[in-house]
Amino acid sequence: MLHLRAICPPEHTEAALRALREHPGAAHVVLLRGVALVPEGDLIEADIAREATDEVVAALCGLGIDHSGGITLEQIDTALSDAADEAEVRAPGDGADAVVWEELLARTGDESRLNGTFLAFLAIACLLAAVGVITDSPVTIVGAMVVGPEFGPLAAIAVGLVRRRWDLARRAAVALAIGFPLAMLITAGGTALGNAAGLFDASVIAGGGHQVDFVYEVGPWSLIVALLAGAAGMLSMTSAKSAALVGVFISVTTVPAAGYASVAAILGDWSRVVGSIGQLVVNLVGIVVAAAAVLLIRRVTWTTEDAGRPLPEG
């Protein structure tokens, strides 16, 4: 279940309470009159079955509470209550299959923002991948996969395309279009410094038989893995089973491919640069396509239209 808290102008309080009382998926409705100071108003709290959240939020937004007051949602880890159990039974659908679209939009919107933290994680991940390439260490490559923050923007593009939220898709595309080239440039600079210092030379990637050669060897399996990872990642995000995301991170070869391309470019192996870039593109496209396909399949859970709230800039 989710805990809902709404700051409501007094003139809309009764209508908001009526919407909560009449919805079968709401429980533990609480009203505290006049306790909200900024903005002024009444405080309404309730516990909502996950599968009922979109309808309840849409009803409150229909009263303009998201503009004149505020609505927040929090995950409830444990609820010991017959009323809560009955609300989950009465609410249509299954909580594990329900998509809380406003929650998904907020999460992907936040994770797709181009900022210093995103760029730092992406640059560090690419540098780790470069170390893995130079030392022929699959373990370091896996570490780079886990550190990479790119799945957030990829998921945001999928959500933006399916929900026609072009502002979200544009924000995510900008983050990737700037983030990856900048991270690769930093990685190339680090590689050049290491090469100039005599830590390694072109022989580290010459020939075949390396354990990390899969990074630049693009093929049908690259697309298959990207599709499966994209589907699993979106299922994880929409069902609140975030533990599965770790498996997604270590399945795709996005950051490792970017790191390998940077190393190969500095060492002059342009065929592997092309292969690595191809691997990167295949993985990026495959993840977005699969994630969007999952959302399209789950359209049967749509009970409300997009509220159209602009993405927060802060």
TrEMBL record:
<keyword id="KW-0812">Transmembrane</keyword>
<keyword id="KW-0472">Membrane</keyword>
<dbReference type="Pfam" id="PF04087">
    <property type="entry name" value="DUF389"/>
</dbReference>
<feature type="transmembrane region" description="Helical">
    <location>
        <begin position="114"/>
        <end position="135"/>
    </location>
</feature>
<feature type="transmembrane region" description="Helical">
    <location>
        <begin position="218"/>
        <end position="237"/>
    </location>
</feature>
<dbReference type="InterPro" id="IPR005240">
    <property type="entry name" value="DUF389"/>
</dbReference>
<protein>
    <submittedName>
        <fullName>Putative hydrophobic protein (TIGR00271 family)</fullName>
    </submittedName>
</protein>
<feature type="transmembrane region" description="Helical">
    <location>
        <begin position="244"/>
        <end position="267"/>
    </location>
</feature>
<feature type="transmembrane region" description="Helical">
    <location>
        <begin position="141"/>
        <end position="162"/>
    </location>
</feature>
<feature type="transmembrane region" description="Helical">
    <location>
        <begin position="174"/>
        <end position="198"/>
    </location>
</feature>
<feature type="transmembrane region" description="Helical">
    <location>
        <begin position="273"/>
        <end position="297"/>
    </location>
</feature>
<keyword id="KW-1133">Transmembrane helix</keyword>
